[in-house]
Amino acid sequence: MVCVVAALVCLDARPVIAGGQEPELRPQAAGTGQGAARPQRSTRDFLGLGAAPDEAAAKLGEPLFQANCSACHGAAARGGTGPNLVRSVLVLHDEKGEEIGPVIKAGRPQGGMPAFTSLTDVQIYDIAEYLHLQVELAANRGLYKHSDTMTSGDVEKGKAFFAANCVSCHSATGDLAGVGKRFSQPSAMLARIAWPSARGPRQATVTTPAGEMVKGTLVKYDDFETTLKAGTGAVTSWPTATIKVEIPDKLAGHRALLPKYSDDDLHNLTRYLMTLQ
Ligand code: HEC
Ligand code: HEC
After folding, report:
1. Does 203-246 match 155-198+251-274 at the fold level?
2. Architecture category of domain 3-143 in CATH
């Protein structure tokens, strides 16, 4: 089984919730859950790993990681343009997001990592737990089943599923024309269907210190400065701390479908989209 599919099945059991629900409950539950949810204690001790990752949180953190971090840190957190987080000393030392959280919130602007000011504490906790689980899986290779090959998938069924579920936003001859050319591997296509990254410029609404609302295209957005190009072409910059920035999540509708796909649906869709050459 492909690991992304496994994750989707997991999402079935507990759909992605918007951050902010039960904000203190889960971290606390995990902190007090010594022993109970701690499998193979001796193996963990032998490997020098701390408390077992909170698997429920890790499942919620996975799509957040894929959406926000994987572009730089790699789909399995093993590095890309950003460092490998499975081998990061900082991640290893982190217990419950206390080390990872500040890096996510403030970014490393000098080093090329943006600040993620809109992720909630709970979401950050979930991402941290996802990373801990990756460390665990890497250390415990026997448990880590990953396959890059996909042999199943029915093109016609995929086409029908697409017609029923996707055409409200996509078109095989429009925005997704030739999408198959961009992915050499079915696994890359599958990952993209599961966790697309928004392309193109990001739209945002800035509320200025005077209370004025300005809509436009984000040119720059970090902890220090925000620059917006308005529809009129006017380009304005503000110190980020003085304004409110709202960035609509255009992938929300796409992600909302995730828990509804079965493994077969995803394999069929993948095969079908690969034919759009
Ligand atoms: C645009 C690329 C980019 C994105 C997106 C990104 N990072 Fe990073 N990240 C980097 C780079 C580059 C570094 C190294 C910067 C440095 O140390 O100066 C880094 C460093 C880190 C570190 C510190 C690692 C260490 O050992 O010091 C952590 C933890 C981290 N990122 C987590 C995340 C998480 C979690 C997300 C998503 C919420 C994320 N990053 C998104 C590029 C990115
Ligand atoms: C509610 C709207 C919506 C629905 C429904 C939807 N998507 Fe998406 N999807 C998006 C958006 C928005 C993007 C990001 C596209 C962009 O930024 O250009 C996206 C991206 C993608 C991408 C990545 C495209 C690329 O060029 O990288 C694929 C593949 C994809 N969707 C497949 C599907 C499939 C298959 C379905 C149906 C099972 C589906 N989507 C349903 C909104 C939707």
Report:
1. no
2. Orthogonal Bundle (1.10)
The pTM assigned to this predicted structure is 0.49
Compute the distance between CA of residue 225 and CA of residue 220 in angstroms, rounded to an integer.
7
List the CATH code of the domain at 155-198+251-274. Answer: 1.10.760
**Residues with a CB atom less than 6 Å from ligand 1:** 68-69, 71-73, 82-83, 85, 88-91, 100, 103-104, 108, 111-114, 116, 127
Question: What does CATH list as the number for 203-246?
Answer: 2.30.30
Best mutation site among 251, 254, 255 for ligand 2 pocket (most ligand atoms within 8 Å of CB): 254
Question: How many angstroms separate the Cα of 112 from the Cα of each of 79, 106, 201, 222?
Answer: 14, 12, 18, 11
CA of 269 to the centre of ligand 2 (A): 12
pLDDT along the chain (277 residues), means of 10: 35 33 35 39 46 80 92 89 87 80 90 89 88 77 39 86 93 93 73 63 88 91 88 91 84 70 80 92
